[in-house]
Amino acid sequence: MKQGQTEPQGNTEAASLVLPRGAADLELGVGSQGGRLHTSQFSGPQPRVTEAAGMVIVRYPRSFRRTTGRVTLDPAVEWTIAARGPALRWKADLSGAALASIHIDGGAKRTHIVLPEPGKRVLLEISGGADRVTIVRPPTVAASLTIDGGASGLVFDHQQLGGIGGTVRLQSNPDETLAGSYDIRIGSGASRLNVTTTDLPETHPPGTNRRDDNPKGTTT
């Protein structure tokens, strides 16, 4: 496994993590980097990692071999995360991050995202559909969910809602004492999407087989 090198962050207060081709088998985490914006480690074909002016760009190579990796972000900086391609098999524990927004343009599949407590309304947007995706937020943080294109096997805050056609709009019970919340938007439909909080037991959407690594439900 090769480890990426970064430059000292200086006085950066906001930064972006950009994945121009999306990513597969990626772990995202948060931790002190000793004055640096991020660290990265990869096995297999190596992505090209560049950093300049508060922007970290991780460009995955075109290869038939699998790349696995981990990117750790500095918690002292507010992050925008933008994948301009699919998010496949992500494990993103962002519970200690300062988060501005998340944008995934190529759809998400078999991805697990743990969100931090926000200080404002934060957008999490997945275009291109979501298949077996879990989004976890702190229990006191409200969330709205909008799905264009319908949903099957949907779970929202421990409620198994099953299949819903058309545009789906759901809202959790807001905590009026908190300034932060999440605006979750899914385009092109969702299959086996679970939006939940850390204080609820794990709930699997109807029809989900925990051992099934190649689910039949897909979105387009």
Instruction: Report how far apart the termini are.
Output: 34 Å
Q: State Rg.
A: 17 Å
Element-level helix/strand string: EEEEEEEEEEEEEEEEEEEEEE
Helix content: under 10%
Q: Uncertain runs with pLDDT below 50, 5 residues or more?
A: 210-220
DSSP E strands, number: 22
Count of individual helical segments: 0
**Number of domain modules:** 2
Instruction: Please outline the major beta sheet.
Output: 13 strands, mixed
Structural class, please? mainly beta
The whole-number mean of residue pLDDT values reads: 88
Tell me what you see in this structure.
This protein is mainly β and 220 residues long. It contains no helices and 22 strands. Strands 1, 3, 4, 5, 8, 10, 11, 13, 15, 17, 18, 21 and 22 form a 13-stranded mixed beta sheet that branches. A hairpin with a 2-residue loop joins strand 6 (48-52) and strand 7.
